[in-house]
Amino acid sequence: MTVTVGIVVFPGTNCELDVIEAVAEVGGVGRLLWHGDSSVGGVDAVVVPGGFAHGDYLRPGAIARFSPMMESVGEFARAGGPVVGICNGFQVLTEAGLLPGALQKNAGLKFRCGLADLVVASNRSVLTTECVVGETLRIPINHFEGNYTCDAETLARLHAEDRIVVRYADNPNGSIDDIAGICNDGGNVVGLMPHPERASHPLLGSADGQKLFAGLLAGADATV
Amino acid sequence: MIFSATVQVTLRPGISDPAGSTIERSLPTLGFDGVTDVRVGKLVTFTISATDQAAARAEVDDMCRRFLSNPVIEDASVSLEQAAQAPA
Fold first, then answer.
1. Do A108 and B18 touch (CB under 8 A)?
2. ipTM exceeding the 0.85 mark
3. Nearest to A102 among B67, B68, B72 (CB)
4. Per-residue model confidence as pLDDT tens digits over A35-62
5. According to CATH, what is the number of the domain A4-223?
């Protein structure tokens, strides 16, 4: 069965077409979901892509989380549907309360852009089922507010419940515990700052993102 | 009644503030020595109509909790002042 991935578009989103390409590269179909609509419309998985939703005004994700589409994405996630937030999408998911913690300005106030080595810390998330714990993936980063932070209690819970999905081999932004991505307790909601859709073909410098999208599609297929 | 509200959003103690520390490190180059604990926040001002001060306060507090600040990393402090009555 062909898996359909809904890709949420806010005013200011700019990575949605890259996600469609990346999904197609591993055999899925991407469908854009406008933020003002109120239903995910029967898709098998949802990606909240990168960009600057609503101009990042107030805080990244602060306004986007109130859109009608995010309400539907929340319901989809709570019902066990796979939801992945990439970069700005990760910020939206934390603001929406679907993932704990928050993303702050990078340490050193540096906008970080380039290939990053990520170490897979858990393969129980829907994004990393095809990965081996400890393997390294080369995935680009491109962010100013990617410095993950949470209180000590939340961090202890993330550890205890095996919810840290990927870590930076060389921390670029000051993230607590080198965290690049986390998941919810069910493993079906994942947020990460790096952009796997930009590592979906060898011509782009890395095809390691394909493994993550393949995992997402396999997970989506299993929950349908 | 009309109130003018001032909401100050600041990073919670213990949350690192890269903007604040960058400003702090720059101050000595202008000759301002001895400055520490620089923190950068946001100021949001607006007018709000409510039946009384308590109602306005409740509304603004709710706004802060759900929208104007992210309680994971930020604190909000609110001050409310009754706006001058429009002439009859």
1. yes
2. no
3. B72
4. 999 999 999 999 999 999 999 999 999 9
5. 3.40.50.880
